[in-house]
Amino acid sequence: MRFSEHAYSKESFRAFSTTRLQRPGTVGIGYTLDGSYEPCFVGVAERGAFEVLTLFPNPATHQFTVSYPHGVAHADRVQVTDIAGRIVIDEKPLTMGQCVVDTDMLSEGSYVVSLFARGALVGSGRVSVQVD
Questions:
Q1: Long-range contacts from 2-5, C-beta under 8 angstroms, 24+ separation
Q2: Which of helix, strand or coil describes residue 16?
Q3: Tens of pLDDT along 15-53?
Q4: Given 3-state DSSP classes, what are the helix, strand and coil percentages for the chain, each rounded to the nearest 5?
Q5: Distance between CA atoms of 20 and 40, rounded to whole angstroms?
Q6: pTM for this one?
């Protein structure tokens, strides 16, 4: 067993830290020497997993359409990165439900498309670009 760390006032921490122990492998529950426990919740709530975006046509020649995932009406931005991770397109879409991305300035290859809404990544997908 090991002592756990908690944020208490200096007086209460001195009195409590000598009796509060935590079992190895447990998270968030501290056990006292008399066997009782006090729940302690520390952490950040996980966001739901982001969705795979619907991108069409795929492969694209001049442009492709990004359909927003269910529940997303407006997007903050659409970001396209190449396979090396470099951002090649970063746009703020003006339309609802879907947006069109122009591929004329992209070279032939595979790209990752990421959609951000409400300040978080909500979807991602892969698109191939072919040059005529």
A1: 4/30, 4/40
A2: helix
A3: 444 444 445 554 544 555 565 655 555 655 455 566 889
A4: 5, 45, 50
A5: 12
A6: 0.62
